[in-house]
Design goal:
Blueprint lengths: L4 H12 L3 E7 L5 H14 L3 E5 L10 H12 L4 H14 L5 E5 L1 H7 L1 H11 L3 E4 L8 H10 L2 E2 L2 E2 L5 H10 L4 E4 L16 H9 L5 E4 L5 H9 L4 E4 L1 H9 L3 H14 L3
Parallel strand pairs: 1-2, 1-9, 2-3, 3-4, 4-5, 6-7, 7-8, 8-9
GO cellular component, one term: cytosol
Subunit structure: Tetramer of two alpha and two beta chains.
Function: The alpha subunit is responsible for the aldol cleavage of indoleglycerol phosphate to indole and glyceraldehyde 3-phosphate.
């Protein structure tokens, strides 16, 4: 049984006539204390959901900004258990905000699929997305997440095969992470959105709501993503970059998230 926080969030936003804004932050970047403040700042800025990374040495789906964030956290000595502690603290302060973990198979394997999913659930996470597991190998990850009581989230892209879209539709819950464009995460000035076929295929298979990620960095891009048919969008690199370059990281996150949130209304 999942936590139901995603369902409650999407229902609340639909009633308000808004799309969901997800904010991504790398846990432990640049250190544990600041990281806790940044999670609070994202919620205070208006993030409807949080997507959090666990620092890993070889994050293949991530562009240079988020790779740098992972490196800073690893240099600060941050461990997965530290990350679960940060999620626990965030959950206590923000009981209704969905928190999703985005991580990689090696980190999951270190604790075992069941052990990792259980630790995530006990910390208060709502979902688990293992970015480098292809859908054809995803069933055991979905089973482990579900048995721990959290939603398994999977990635769908405009170039995903029909079979892959059908698999992620049936295996996933909470939401479907839809890639806004090919490649790795990162800020882009262009948003080539042609997602009608993807979104209609997901709908036809009863997939969880589509949330667009990869390259969302302005309120206009947020609006474009929602107008293309997404239920929400996730911004990562823009937020991580704003934090990394600011004298007051929490204020920078709060301000950018508030600006991005205007695009959902």
């Amino acid at each position: 049984m999942s936590t139901q926080r995603y369902g409650a969030m999407f229902a609340r936003l639909e009633d308000a006539g808004e799309g969901a804004l997800g904010a991504f932050l790398m846990l432990g970047d640049p250190d544990l204390e600041t990281s806790a403040e940044l999670l609070d700042a994202a919620v205070e800025g208006g993030a409807d959901m949080l997507e959090v990374g666990i620092p890993f040495s070889d994050p293949v789906a991530d562009g240079p900004v988020i790779q740098a964030a992972a490196s800073r956290a690893l240099e600060a000595g941050v461990t997965p258990d530290d990350c679960f502690d940060l999620i626990r603290q965030c959950r206590e302060k923000h009981p209704h905000v969905p928190i999703g973990i985005l991580t990689y198979a090696n980190l999951v394997a270190a604790k075992g699929r069941e052990g990792f999913a259980r630790a995530a659930a006990e910390a208060g996470a709502d979902s688990l997305l293992v970015a480098d597991v292809p859908s054809i190998e995803a069933q055991p990850y979905a089973d482990a997440a579900r048995s721990a009581g959290i939603d398994p989230v999977f990635i769908a892209a405009p170039n995903s095969s029909a079979a892959a879209i059908e698999r992620v539709s049936h295996l996933g819950s909470g939401y479907t992470y839809c890639v806004a464009r090919a490649g790795v995460t990162g800020q882009r000035s262009d948003m080539a959105l042609d997602h009608d076929t993807l979104f209609s295929a997901l709908r036809s298979h009863g997939a969880p709501p589509p949330v667009l990620g990869f390259g969302i960095s302005t309120s206009e891009q947020v609006r474009a993503g929602l107008d293309a048919g997404a239920a929400g969008v996730i911004s990562g690199s823009a937020i991580v970059n704003a934090m990394a370059e600011a004298d007051d990281p929490a204020a920078a996150v709060r301000s950018l998230v508030a600006e991005l949130k205007t695009g959902t209304r």
